[in-house]
Amino acid sequence: MNEIEDPDTAAPNPKPFNWKSWKILPLTETSSTNEEARHQPIWTAVVADSQTAGRGRHGRHWTSDKGGLWLSAVLPTPGNLEHWNALPLAVGLAVIRTLTKLNITARMRWPNDIMVNDLKLAGLLLERYHSDRVVAGIGVNLTNNPGEESPELSRIATRLCDLTPSPPNRDEFMISLLTHLKEIHQEMDQGGVESLVVELNQMWGVLPRSVELDIQGKSIIGNFMGITPAGNLILQDAAGTESEHDAAHVTMLHEVPTTER
């Protein structure tokens, strides 16, 4: 049997549709929704049933099997680009607001992971292809089985269907997320990260957290204390002295269990 699908007989992608101010482009399969979204206008959301080359920060592979939400939203970033430096945190907050509506308590792990307890539920990848917009890639485990492709994920990942007895379907979750994403973008546009900093610092869960940072190739251990009104990471050393670090310079943050200290 020929297992190569004939492109003339392949199932077509569903038709694009508009929802409020969003244009939604659904795909059955793509290499990366971020790549599909990079040439799209603002307020476009690309969503795929699966990705063959999904990726996280620094090019890491992101398992994107059927049953998850693989979404890339094109967000405008008008004016001074520094105004939008903390947009990845704001997008994470939009995901957490969506989960809160489902009575799921989640937290963010700097700078782009959404955690439930110590298990990863969702991840973010924001990329700027044009000066006036950002593509916000959001991956959420819903009913998919990431451990099937990558067995090690079974120990570190969780799914929405494991967290609530009546999970919404993918499109219901997507619509709720896009609603919160638009709201939080408007809040940040009008008031900057300062308008969100209190809520952002609540989404880290219990602080301080023992962490190890990789900052431009240098390893630093300390306590993560949240963020400043400018969106910089606050790190406290063993002597209690606090320092600020630009998110762009933090290559990796690893949460260190107390037993490792």
Describe it.
- With 261 residues, this protein is an alpha+beta fold.
- 20% of the residues lie in helices and 33% in strands.
- The protein is built from 5 helices and 13 strands.
- The strands form 2 sheets. An 8-stranded mixed beta sheet has the order 1-2-3-4-8-7-6-5. Strands 12-11-10-9-13 form a 5-stranded antiparallel beta sheet.
- The chain is globular, with a radius of gyration of 19 Å.
Write the layout of secondary structure elements.
Elements: E1 17-19, E2 22-30, H1 33-37, E3 44-51, E4 69-76, H2 87-100, E5 107-109, E6 113-116, E7 119-130, E8 133-140, H3 146-149, H4 170-191, H5 197-202, E9 209-215, E10 218-227, E11 233-236, E12 242-245, E13 250-255
Helix pairs in contact: 2-4
Q: Which ranges are low-confidence, i.e. pLDDT below 50, for 5 or more consecutive residues?
A: 1-9
Based on secondary structure, the structural category is alpha+beta
Q: If helices are DSSP runs of H or I spanning 4 or more residues, what is the number of helices?
A: 5
- Largest sheet entry: 8 strands, mixed
Strands of the biggest beta sheet: in what spatial order?
A: 1-2-3-4-8-7-6-5
- Care to count the β-strands? 13
* Series of secondary-structure elements, N-terminal to C-terminal: EEHEEHEEEEHHHEEEEE
Mean pLDDT: 87
Head-to-tail CA distance between termini: 57 Å
Shape descriptor reads: globular
Can I get a quick summary?
By secondary structure, the chain is α+β, with helices and mostly antiparallel strands. Helix content is 20%, strand content 33%. The N terminus is likely disordered.
